[in-house]
């Protein structure tokens, strides 16, 4: 078959070694997933194996679908008959068939995380436990951790595994909660995500005939991204493969990034012990990336002590150097990335889908999204809602909307009882009906609520309207940021989120802070004359209402590094390389944690095929303050041979060069002066009557004033699609190319 001739000798060996246990340990981009794909085709096509007898487990559904499509291309429709999917999807399917053996009906429900938390919330309440200590998400993550280690509620109390003092203190009651939670799930004929794996283990342990059946069925078992399996998953594969021993696992210890969720890198090491006649294949040639990218990635991972020796190389070209870009602020970073995409795309005739932007935490997408929108670049966020669609952001925005416009019914519905203030659904319904029947605004109804509501609801509503009124009063005197901060605090939203100490809770809290930061930047922006809350909301509404071209596949991909595993893109931007952000302050408690962060950086850089950009901002708004940010230690660790530091700021949106001493790799090691001072020292002060003109008729030879660059002469105006640009020679700042859709210019 010609598909075999496209493999290197080691890859070919891995494909053709079909009988007996096989482990492929290989670096990023060395063709692990490709080998798995071709191996399946080979088994069916050359070895005559029935596709129904092949089970392949992937990390995401997306990966499974892609693999299936590729096999289909190689061998046709037969490919569809193989068992392929994530652990959860494959074993949910099996549990449906076998449910009866576990006392479940086959139509059992699968609870998602929200369902699970809501159930835990009720149980904690019933048991009269403190719901500030026994937070649903904390309780759930403890239960989930136990299940992934295969610790049942019966065994939980004697399980020695304890990570923290908090955990130790919670333990006695946790056992009880775990027990009741399982009983209630069972009564509701429901399983949560972790049960799907846990119960599969129970099934195979207690029902040898069932195990036998699946051992016979799956003569060939394959696992991609094996380094990120947890104990529960590991044991399932081990049991299934026990008879035929035709198990092939594929992984890269350098890319293990899910330890915080119970994945265990030891599974790779144990594998050799479990299968004494294990055959191991190493793949060391990288086909994905340029030499510069491969060398850079190698230099990153070399800093980790815990790793298996690998020598990754590539025959590909050197390619362009890795570009290191520093931005003055997070917004500037967003603009820098967006402009680079815009320019490179036009220069090299690329598609949006050739680009990916990777970040450490979801909240970083905000500045990037805004910059991309402003430049009309279509994008999609994978595995996370777009910033302004997130629940906590919508909640706070709803408050702000309602303060500005107390007839806003949708906003009212969102906030009237959030955070909880004892206004039940029935009362809300009555209010809405009254507003509808009398055709009067919500505000009028709720300020006269005593005429048709009674008791606690009335008092609570009065408190609510008093609060909203006080916000509205403040709005007359204060700017958008001051009002929004006040609302976030006094509504109780911040406290509510602050008290949730889980990773999700922290994320939500950070997101709300990030919204406040955005408002602060809006208020601080010299170009925004009207700093009122109303003006800000309008600006955002225009942003979010923009058509996002949902059916368009040609989009720039934005996602966390965790979500990018296994994928590849021609151009990759890894953003926010700053201390405390990446490596993340929250996740770093030990050397192991630092090494996991570093593996994450390795995963990020190895997604790039042709060009890799690493960016960091010198300042970032966090917690409503402009913080100076140190460049990430990961940047300092890079081998400078392959790197080009782009010192020049983004000229098309009018940047400046940050003054300071350059250290290794172009970084300033010492404390820097506050960036804002740096700007104001150089920047032009706009004339008192400065007002941006309509630039539709801007033409060569006109004199203009820019709020930052001062006076200049238009040299050229050009149209490129929807983006009109003007080249302007400024008296004090030299030549700049500005995008007219957002340059503020006064025609003099
Ligand atoms: P990761 O560790 O990121 O999951 P991987 O080891 O699974 O990477 P693949 O995604 O399978 O790597 O392959 C990386 C790229 O290299 C793909 O574009 C693949 O098509 C290409 N590739 C792999 N092997 C070869 C080969 N022998 N000849 C040409 N291209 C190859
Ligand atoms: Mg892969």
UniProtKB/TrEMBL annotation:
Record field: catalytic activity: ATP + H2O = ADP + phosphate + H(+); Couples ATP hydrolysis with the unwinding of duplex DNA by translocating in the 3'-5' direction
Keyword entries, A-Z: ATP-binding, DNA-binding, Helicase, Hydrolase, Isomerase, Nucleotide-binding
Enzyme class: isomerase
Gene Ontology BP terms: recombinational repair
Keyword Transcription regulation attached: no
Protein name in UniProt: DNA 3'-5' helicase
EC number from the UniProt entry: 5.6.2.4
Family annotation (SUPFAM superfamilies): P-loop containing nucleoside triphosphate hydrolases
Residues engaged in binding ATP: 26-33
Sequence ranges assigned to domain UvrD-like helicase ATP-binding in this UniProt record: 5-290
Highest taxon of source: Bacteria
Family of the protein in this entry: Belongs to the helicase family. UvrD subfamily.
Single GO molecular function: ATP binding
All residue ranges annotated as the UvrD-like helicase C-terminal domain in the record: 291-566
GO cellular component: cytosol; DNA helicase complex
């Amino acid at each position: 078959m010609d598909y075999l001739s496209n493999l290197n000798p080691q890859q070919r060996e891995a494909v053709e070694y079909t009988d007996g246990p096989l482990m492929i340990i290989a670096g990023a981009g060395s063709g692990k997933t490709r080998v798995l794909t071709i191996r399946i085709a080979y088994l069916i096509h050359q070895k005559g194996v029935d596709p129904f007898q092949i089970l392949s487990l992937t990390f995401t559904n997306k990966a499974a679908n892609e693999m299936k499509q590729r096999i289909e291309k190689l061998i046709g429709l037969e490919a569809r008959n193989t068992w392929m999917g994530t652990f959860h999807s494959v074993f949910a399917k099996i549990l449906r068939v076998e449910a009866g053996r576990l006392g479940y009906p086959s139509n059992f429900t699968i609870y998602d995380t929200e369902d699970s938390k809501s159930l835990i919330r009720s149980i904690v309440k019933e048991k009269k436990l403190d719901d500030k200590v026994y937070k649903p998400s904390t309780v759930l993550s403890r239960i989930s951790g136990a299940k992934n280690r295969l610790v049942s509620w019966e065994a939980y109390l004697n399980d020695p595994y304890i990570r923290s003092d908090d955990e130790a203190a919670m333990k006695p009651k946790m056992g009880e909660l775990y027990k009741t939670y399982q009983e209630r799930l069972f009564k509701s004929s429901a399983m949560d995500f972790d049960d799907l794996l846990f119960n599969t283990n129970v099934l195979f342990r207690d029902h040898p005939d069932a195990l036998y059946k699946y051992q016979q069925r799956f003569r060939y078992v394959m696992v991609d991204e094996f380094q990120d399996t947890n104990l529960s998953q590991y044991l399932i594969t081990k049991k299934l493969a026990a008879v035929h021993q035709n198990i092939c696992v594929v992984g890269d210890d350098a890319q293990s990034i899910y330890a915080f969720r119970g994945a265990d890198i030891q599974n790779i090491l144990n594998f050799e012990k479990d299968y004494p006649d294990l055959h191991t294949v190493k793949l060391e040639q990288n086909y994905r990336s340029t030499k510069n990218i491969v060398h850079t990635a190698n230099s990153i991972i070399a800093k980790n002590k815990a790793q298996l020796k690998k020598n990754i190389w590539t025959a590909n070209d050197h390619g362009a150097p890795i570009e290191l870009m520093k931005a003055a602020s997070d917004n500037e970073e967003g603009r820098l990335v967006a402009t680079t995409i815009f320019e490179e795309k036009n220069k090299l005739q690329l598609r949006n889908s050739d680009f990916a932007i990777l970040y450490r935490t979801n909240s970083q997408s905000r500045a990037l999204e805004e910059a991309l929108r402003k430049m009309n670049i279509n994008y999609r966020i994978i595995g996370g809602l777009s910033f302004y669609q997130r629940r906590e952001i919508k909640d706070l925005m709803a408050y702000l909307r309602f303060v500005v416009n107390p007839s806003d019914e949708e906003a009212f519905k969102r906030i009237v009882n959030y955070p909880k203030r004892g206004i039940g659904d029935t009362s809300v319904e009555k209010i809405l009906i009254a507003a509808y029947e009398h055709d009067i605004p919500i505000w009028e109804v709720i300020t006269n609520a005593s005429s048709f509501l009674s008791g606690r609801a009335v008092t609570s509503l009065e408190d609510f309207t008093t609060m909203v009124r006080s916000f509205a009063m403040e709005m007359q005197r204060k700017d958008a940021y001051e009002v929004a901060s006040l609302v976030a605090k006094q509504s109780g939203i911040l406290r509510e989120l602050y008290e949730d100490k889980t990773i999700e809770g922290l994320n939500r809290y950070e997101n709300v802070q990030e919204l406040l930061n955005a408002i602060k930047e809006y208020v601080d922006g010299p170009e925004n004359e009207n700093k009122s809350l109303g003006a800000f909301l309008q600006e955002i509404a225009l942003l979010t209402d923009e058509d996002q071209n949902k059916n368009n596949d040609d989009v720039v991909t934005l996602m966390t590094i965790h979500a990018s595993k296994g994928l590849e893109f021609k151009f990759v931007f890894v953003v926010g390389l700053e201390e405390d952000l990446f490596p993340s302050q929250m996740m770093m408690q030990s050397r192991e944690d630092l090494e996991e962060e570093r593996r994450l950086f390795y995963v990020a850089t190895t997604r790039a095929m042709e060009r890799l950009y690493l960016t960091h901002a010198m300042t970032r708004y966090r917690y409503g303050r402009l913080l100076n940010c140190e460049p990430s230690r990961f940047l300092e660790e890079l081998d400078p041979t392959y790197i080009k530091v782009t010192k020049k700021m983004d000229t098309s949106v009018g940047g400046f060069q940050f003054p300071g001493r350059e250290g290794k790799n172009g970084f300033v090691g010492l404390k820097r002066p506050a960036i804002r001072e740096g700007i104001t020292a150089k920047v032009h002060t706009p004339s008192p009557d400065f007002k941006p003109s309509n630039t539709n008729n801007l033409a060569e030879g006109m004199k203009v004033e820019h709020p930052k660059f001062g006076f200049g002469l238009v040299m050229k105006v050009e149209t490129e699609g929807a983006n009109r640009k003007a080249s302007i020679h400024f008296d004090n700042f030299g030549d700049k190319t500005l995008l007219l859709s957002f340059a503020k210019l006064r025609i003099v």
